[in-house]
Amino acid sequence: MKVHEKIRQLRLEKGYSQEVMAEELQISTTAYGDVERGKTELSLSRLEQILRVFGTPLEAFFGGSSTEKLQAENDKLKLENEKLKQENQYWREKFDERLLTELYRIGAATHRERIGFK
Predict the structure, then answer these.
(1) Contact at 8 Å (CB) between 15 and 55?
(2) CA dist., res. 64 & res. 79, Å (int)
(3) How far apart are CA 66 and CA 63, in angstroms?
(4) How confident is the model at residue 68 (pLDDT cuts 50, 70, 90)?
(5) Predicted model pTM
(6) Which range among 27-36, 72-81, 93-102 shows the weakest confidence by mean pLDDT?
(7) Which residues contact 49 (CB under 8 A, 6 or more apart)?
(8) Cα distance from N-terminal residue to C-terminal residue, the chain
């Protein structure tokens, strides 16, 4: 959903008319209507003014707190990291086991050759 569409949706949810919004922002009703129709370039400061009228933080307008999003992503990465550590440990043990088997086989073969067994 585009910014101007979200502004319109939020205004309707709050029960404000375009006239009330224009008055609060000290602009004409036509100018405010252009904002909601996406016909005017919306600056960050104007968006912040609009959101103050609604009592909505900028982060919430764009889908939640950036801190919450970062924390959720961090938690997800921690779980993935733990899974990779466990998988790495599994394969390391398999490798060590295979390496020891091969070293034993090579060592036993060398030892057998030394004493004359083939």
Answers:
(1) no
(2) 22
(3) 9
(4) low
(5) 0.53
(6) 72-81
(7) 25
(8) 77
Residue-wise pLDDT tens digits, 9-22 = 999 999 999 999 99
Closest-CA residue to 27 (of 13, 42, 12): 42
Rounded CA-CA distance 88/25 in Å is: 59
| DSSP letters spanning the chain | --HHHHHHHHHHHHT--HHHHHHHHTS-HHHHHHHHHT-SPPPHHHHHHHHHHHT--HHHHTTS-HHHHHHHHHHHHHHHHHHHHHHHHHHHHHHHHHHHHHHHHHHHHHHHHHTT--
Structure tokens at 38: 């996406």
Q: Tell me the two tokens of residue 104.
A: 């034993």
Residue whose token pair is 């949810």: 13
